[in-house]
Structure formats: C-alpha cells, structure tokens
Amino acid sequence: MNMRRDFIIGLVLIALCATLPLFIGMRYFITQATLFFIWGIVVLQWNLVLGVGGIFSLAQMALFAVGAYATAMFGYYFEMPMILAMPLAALLTVVVSTLVGLACLRLKGPYVALLTLAVAQVLYLLIVNDTECFTNPPSGCMPLFGGVRGFTRFGDLGFRDLFGSKWYIADYYLGLGLLALAAAFSVAIIRGPMGLAFQALRDNPGCAMARGVSRFKYQLWVFALSAFFTGLAGSFYAVHFAAVGPTAFSFSTLLFLLSMIVVGGMGTMWGPLLGALLLMSADEAMREFGDWRDIGLGLLLAGFVILLPKGVLGSLQALVQRFRAKA
Asked: Which sequence ranges are marked TM in the entry (predicted)?
C-alpha cells in the first residue's frame, strides 16, 4: 500500500515537473530546476544511508566528486562519449564507495563520520596538490587530476548541436529522468524487505542481528547501491556545467545538502526532496542579501531543528499518526 502510494506521488510530481517548461520558459528558472534535480538525487541517496540505514556517513560529496571527475577524465583523456562515460563513472563510484564501506562499516556513530570525512579530505588534497604535468595541451601544463583548475572541454551529450540555444531544456528533462529513476530506487528500497532490514538495524541492531540480519552485509549493500545514483548525479553535474573542479568537494555544499535532509525529514521517503525545495527557495530568496544570506540560512536551519526536530514531513507524519490514534 505504501509503495503504491509513493509511486503515485512520484508520477504526479514527475508530470508536474514535465509540464513546467511549457509555462515557465525562463532560462534561469530551468537551470535552477535542473540543479534541484541533481541535488535531489544526492539527498535521496544520502537519506538511504543516513536516515534509513542509520550510517552517519559524510562521504556523499566525495562520491559525488568521484562521479564528476571520472566522467571528465574519461572524456578528456580517452575522448569517450558522455553517454558511455556517465554510467561507467557511476559504476566506478560504486567501487570506491564499497572500498570506503569496507573500511568504515565496522565502526559506529561519530567514528564513521570522521573516517568518511577524512576520506573526502584526502581526495580533495590529492587533487589540489597535484601540480606535476601529465600532459601539455596548448592551454598549458595539465596535471593528471586537473589540479586547482579542474577539467573543461571534455565533451557533452550533443544537446547543443541537436537543440541549439534550447539545449538547457534537454538537460532539464534528462535531469528529471535521472531523478525519477533515483526516486523509484529509493521507494523500492525503503518500502521493500531490504528497507525493513535497514530500519531494524538502525532502530534495534541487537534484536535485528539476533534474528539473523547481518549488519555488515546490509549496511554495505545500502552504502554501495546508493553510490551509483550519487555518482551519476556528479557525472550529470559535470556534463551540464561543462566543467568540474575541487569545488565539487565543497564542505559548505555538503552542509547545505545535509540540512535539506534534516529540514525535510530524515528517514522519510519524500522529506529530502521537500527539504531541497525549501532550502533552495530560501537561498534564492536571500541571494541579494550577500553575507546575510548565510546567517539567514543558519537561523532557518536552527529554527527547524528546534521547532521541528523530525523535519517537516516527519512532523506531519507524527501528527497524522497521533490523530489516527485518538480517533
């Protein structure tokens, strides 16, 4: 019943998003909506690890960056078509995520957070400190990982040639399609037997393991599987913006995305998307206030944590359950 309801909600949301460019054709709105799709994929998958699996991992932006960098390097060094580079980059992200999972999933709580954050920082330092020339194109010395300037001109999906000045609308629909796939995967995990195992391990690991649920196996599964769409989001980000650099590891972006999950409702199906919509809208509304924007977002987040600790959707669900119990 819950799975059917979620799929109906998903289909309605996809239909609404599919019609938006017909009514709002502004390029800025379309590109911001495309960015929302990218962040939506990331927070949906991060919610599987953090909210459903109960693994306090901070490696999500590092996995996102792996997908972005792998795509750029496949295109730049091997002249690989982006339609092939993107899924390959996503698979490489799964491999990296599995290795990280093997290293950290025997740990618990803050130790997982510290280790995954350390992995992200090591990858960042590896890239920015890479100054030795690997190739010498006309633009100058090019380190293996792009160094501080990153990669550009590594290829595209051909939408600019096919659609001309309206290429960004094609990117919009591709982003929507990827988000739909990521959401369907999340529904299948959360509402299926695997989701029940994840939630049991999160809420009462002792009882779950006593009943034969392997904590290591199931948490490694969610860690690895969610990485595919995270890497795919990073890959699409690189192709959409035609550039990738060390900013993909930005700690401020990591905190921004984590806030989306908290505000929307950690562990809920649609809470992360709602949180992404609310925080991106608030960020856009405060764009003209300069440094005050960060202060405003901080106060907004603090207000949600204090007044709605379960997030918007989590609090609504608790309210509905309380009402049903009284009825």
From this structure: 7-30, 36-56, 61-78, 84-104, 111-128, 172-190, 220-243, 255-279, 299-320
